């Protein structure tokens, strides 16, 4: 019941090479949006419509209610986004939504933080169940509170433990190890379940306690009810807790629970309804219906709540809220059982309605040219300084919120290994998350960079019909969205690793001295190794693309000089190409490291979200990028590696890029001979060629596999409804589509592109054409810092700066969050390609009397046009696939929206949401959305190639 992928996003920062892993701001779950009664019944999302966010537990019934209510009131559009109970409360408190939703009653500190009077209304009843996946044990498992507590404390480790056997006489229990799955986010479901465990076990209450997030003694974390359901379904021997409706949808085994009278109760609509008789109104912080004494009542029953403000000043919104809630508490109760919920007791619904009703010339030309030139230079400088201002604003905004954590925990936050968010027992140590981030990123660099550089060398060695298609293909694959990598890793890569790759590594490398400790453990479930591998695959295209461009600009006479001396292809690469291109290759590796350190969505799906430190890569872990913590937790940015990246990018070059080794090679020409190619030199050359082709295979096979798999899984979802309809309710999802996601993506990415591309190009012009001294160095360093900023941090920053300030999620906020990511990409790439333009072209243009700004606009930029277009393509493609910042700023929407001030959906956001649900029909739609994203990337790549080819012909 509670929290989903966003549930309580807290400010965190991580020490690490290029990552500005700072604070993740809390965003939570409660979302209701409906338009005013006067709004038009068709078309786009209206400006006065309702927006809500909150718990994931009631999301299916709320979604169905909104669709049904719209049949009654066609003008009403209510947009609810399931981001988690903790996030819903925070957004409700910040008044960024019109209503909130939570599975736990508001606590005293939360009530105190509310800015105005409120109403808290129960809507439906549900149950938290203990679900399991054990081969040969399909139904009939019985558990009591004491035994469940021991399992989740880690005291009971196998399924044939005598304590479990005593409760299940006659049942053949296997010796399979128990794999505990718990929520990794802050959730109402966790609050209900841990409250029940605390009532059943003194040991649990003393060691762990009850809260929306606790310090779990054992187990693997799952994000949201759907994440827990997926983890249990994929792991034999697993057990976890989640809401009844999600467990039924995922077809998991569900345990009977021992009641206070000694009987074992099967969770059902009827048994949960019987527990509802103990619900009282008005709702208090201590309200719950756990351990009902009613005969046949399910012990872990609960309810979910809508949070409404009494001082709604917009009459249209107030009327829509009143009409919908009145309908939901009356006619809406008739449909809840179809989605495995239980209706409210009639007296509670009546009391809720009562509470609702009280709430709701030549010298002149020269001077003018000089003025224009100075103005142009000043403009590029101001835009470049804007990067520094952006970083400064981010630091101020995030550091302000982070101070409370530093003040409370001090150095312990960096070196501590305990993470306990239970109220009154707070203990936050971020070392396991820093460790997990560094390990997964390290695995990615060790695997990905050698393969990528090998592929880049191959692309520059081969010619003609092979090189061109491969080059285009790599450019296309460079823009595969991270959410697509995550889907493929979850549904394809991880099962293969579990069944074959990891068992082989454990059986072989696990026995090798020194490195064996890295490969010990069990080959099942999420782990650091899988997360590192998927990151390695993700960074392959970008490291390959940048390295290829750097190697391509190694002077031809340098290569020919080496060959003239009798060097083999391998020796020419080692002695001439790599020394000249070394700094650029290191820069490409730093870009890859920045991408790895900052990735959120793909890693969170496979790493396990379990904070622990150990030697083995086969164990689950947690990373800073995917950790949801309380607002204010932050680590200071460490930027030494960005400085090194900048230094490496220009080390060994003269003013215009001439490398020292060029002079050395030229000086030696004619004086040194390497001798005939035979014997071991020939073997090395052949081996080098084989190595390059192996790198190509290792890089292109998984990337091609991902693309083809998306096509095969997504093509079946493409239909007229898919492109023209908004989502249908969960009872008939195949009748709906995601047209609002397509429109929203275009709106958000369009806003970002219109702002980021001009800013990025102007910044690059200043750095390449005017930038000298400390100012340029500072701008360049800041651009590298921003380049490595995790996308979720960019989203958190814009949430705090724009969403909270304006009091609303919006397409504009989503676009601005993407600007933070796109601006430094375009700036750094623009500088790189502009510096590669021969200096002779600039000097020739100036000699003809062109002012500096005209020489840049008319000569330099057209010459570098292909590289600039490639930079824009990469930036836009990254924006198309971003999920985390859109989740924090645009929120999502089930309706068509063309208003940049309103909550807006996006294809990556819809793909991520649908992929995490246990409903197969929605999985198909998710793959369809992923296919459309890939098609958009392909269109961008081909268009950029065509335009750049025409431009180069015109220049020639």
Topology overview:
Layout: E1 11-14, E2 21-23, E3 50-54, H1 59-72, E4 78-82, H2 85-94, E5 99-102, H3 108-113, E6 118-133, E7 142-143, H4 145-153, H5 162-167, E8 179-183, H6 188-200, H7 202-207, E9 220-222, H8 224-234, E10 238-243, H9 244-249, E11 253-254, E12 256-258, E13 264-265, H10 269-275, E14 301-309, H11 315-329, H12 346-357, H13 362-409, H14 412-415, E15 419-420, E16 427-428, H15 431-461, H16 467-477, H17 482-508, H18 528-552, H19 556-564, H20 569-598, H21 601-606, H22 640-650, H23 660-668, H24 680-714, H25 720-724, H26 739-770, H27 773-787, H28 791-806, H29 811-835, H30 839-847, H31 852-863, H32 865-881, H33 884-889, H34 907-915, H35 920-955
Parallel strand pairs: 3-4, 3-5, 7-12, 8-9, 8-10
Antiparallel strand pairs: 1-2, 5-14, 6-10, 6-11, 6-14, 12-13, 15-16
């Amino acid at each position: 019941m509670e929290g989903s992928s966003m549930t309580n996003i807290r400010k965190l920062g991580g020490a690490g090479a290029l990552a500005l892993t700072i604070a993740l701001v809390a965003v939570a779950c409660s979302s209701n949006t409906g338009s005013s009664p006067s709004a038009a019944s068709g078309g786009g999302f209206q400006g006065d419509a309702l927006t809500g966010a909150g718990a994931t537990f009631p999301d299916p019934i709320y979604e169905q209610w909104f669709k049904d209510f719209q049949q009654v009131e066609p003008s009403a559009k209510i947009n609810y986004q399931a981001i988690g109970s903790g996030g819903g409360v925070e957004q409700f408190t910040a008044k960024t939504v019109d209503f909130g939703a939570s599975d736990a009653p508001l606590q005293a500190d939360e009530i105190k933080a509310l800015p105005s009077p409120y109403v808290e209304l129960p809507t439906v009843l549900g149950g938290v169940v203990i679900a399991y996946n054990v081969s040969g044990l399909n139904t009939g498992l019985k558990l009591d509170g004491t035994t469940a507590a021991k399992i989740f404390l880690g005291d009971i480790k196998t399924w044939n433990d005598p304590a479990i056997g005593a409760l299940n006489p006659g049942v053949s229990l296997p010796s399979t190890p128990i794999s505990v799955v718990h929520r990794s986010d802050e959730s109402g479901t966790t609050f209900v379940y841990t409250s029940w465990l605390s009532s059943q076990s003194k040991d649990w209450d003393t060691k762990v306690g009850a809260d929306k997030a606790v310090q779990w003694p054992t187990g693997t974390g799952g994000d949201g009810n759907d994440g827990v359901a997926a983890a249990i379904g994929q792991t034999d021997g697993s057990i976890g807790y989640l809401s009844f409706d999600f467990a039924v949808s995922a077809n998991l085994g569900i345990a009977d629970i021992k009641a206070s009278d000694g009987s074992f109760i099967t969770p059902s609509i009827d048994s949960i309804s019987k527990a509802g008789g103990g619900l009282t109104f008005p709702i208090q912080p201590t309200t719950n219906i756990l351990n009902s004494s009613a005969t046949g009542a399910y012990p872990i029953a609960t309810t979910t709540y809508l949070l409404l403000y009494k001082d709604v000043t917009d009459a249209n919104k107030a009327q829509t809220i009143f009409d919908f809630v009145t309908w939901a508490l009356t006619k809406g109760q008739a449909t809840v059982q179809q989605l495995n919920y239980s209706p409210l007791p009639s007296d509670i619904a009546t009391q809720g309605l009562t509470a609702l009703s009280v709430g709701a010339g030549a010298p002149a030309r020269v001077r003018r040219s000089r003025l224009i030139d100075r103005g142009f230079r000043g403009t590029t400088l101001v835009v470049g300084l804007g990067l520094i201002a952006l970083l400064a604003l981010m630091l101020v905004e995030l550091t302000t919120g982070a101070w409370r954590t530093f003040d409370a925990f001090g150095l312990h936050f960096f070196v501590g290994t305990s993470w306990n968010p239970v109220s009154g027992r707070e203990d936050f140590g971020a070392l396991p998350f820093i460790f997990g981030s560094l390990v997964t990123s390290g695995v990615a660099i060790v695997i990905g960079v050698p393969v990528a550089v090998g592929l880049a060398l191959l692309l520059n060695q081969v010619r003609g019909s092979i090189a061109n298609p491969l080059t285009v293909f790599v450019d296309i694959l460079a823009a595969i969205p991270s959410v697509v990598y995550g889907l493929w890793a979850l549904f394809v890569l991880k099962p293969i690793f579990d069944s074959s790759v990891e068992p082989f590594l454990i059986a072989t490398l696990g026995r090798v001295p020194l490195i064996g400790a890295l490969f010990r453990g069990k080959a099942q479930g999420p782990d650091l190794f899988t997360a590192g591998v998927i990151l390695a695959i993700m960074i392959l295209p970008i490291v390959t693309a940048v390295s290829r461009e750097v190697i391509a600009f190694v002077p031809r006479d340098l290569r020919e000089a080496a060959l003239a001396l009798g060097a083999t292809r391998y020796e020419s690469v080692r002695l001439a190409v790599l020394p000249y291109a070394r700094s650029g290759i290191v820069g490409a590796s730093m870009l890859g490291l920045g991408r790895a350190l900052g990735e959120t969505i793909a890693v969170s799906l496979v790493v396990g979200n379990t904070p622990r430190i150990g030697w083995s890569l086969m164990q689950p872990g947690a990373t800073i990028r995917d950790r949801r913590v309380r607002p204010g937790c932050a680590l200071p940015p460490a930027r030494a590696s960005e400085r090194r990246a900048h230094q490496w990018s220009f080390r060994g070059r003269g003013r215009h890029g001439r490398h020292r080794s060029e002079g050395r090679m030229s000086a030696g020409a004619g004086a040194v001979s390497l001798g005939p190619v035979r014997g071991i030199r020939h073997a090395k050359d052949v081996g080098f060629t084989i190595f390059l082709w192996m790198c190509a295979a290792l890089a292109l096979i998984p990337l091609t596999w991902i693309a083809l798999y998306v096509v095969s899984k997504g093509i079946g979802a493409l239909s007229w409804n898919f492109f023209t309809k908004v989502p249908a309710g969960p009872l008939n999802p195949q009748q709906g589509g995601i047209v609002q996601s397509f429109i929203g993506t275009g709106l958000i990415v369009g806003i970002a592109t219109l702002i980021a591309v001009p800013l990025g190009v102007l910044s690059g012009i200043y750095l390449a054409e005017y930038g000298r001294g400390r100012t340029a160095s500072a701008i360049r360093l800041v651009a590298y810092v921003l380049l490595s900023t995790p996308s979720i941090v960019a989203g958190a920053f814009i949430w705090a700066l724009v969403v909270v300030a304006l009091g609303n999620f919006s397409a504009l906020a989503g676009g601005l969050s993407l600007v933070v990511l796109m601006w430094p990409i375009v700036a750094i790439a623009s500088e790189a390609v502009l510096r590669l333009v021969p200096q002779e072209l600039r000097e020739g243009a100036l000699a003809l009397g062109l002012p500096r700004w005209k020489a840049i606009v008319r000569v330099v930029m057209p010459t570098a046009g292909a590289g600039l277009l490639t930079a824009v393509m990469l930036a836009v493609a990254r924006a198309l696939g971003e999920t985390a910042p859109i989740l924090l700023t645009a929120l999502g929407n089930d309706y068509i929206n063309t208003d940049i001030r309103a909550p807006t959906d996006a294809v990556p956001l819809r793909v991520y949401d649908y992929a995490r649900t246990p409903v197969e029909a929605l999985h198909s739609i998710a793959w369809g959305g992923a296919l459309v994203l890939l098609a958009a990337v392909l269109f961008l790549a081909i268009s950029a190639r065509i335009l750049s080819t025409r431009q180069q012909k015109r220049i020639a």
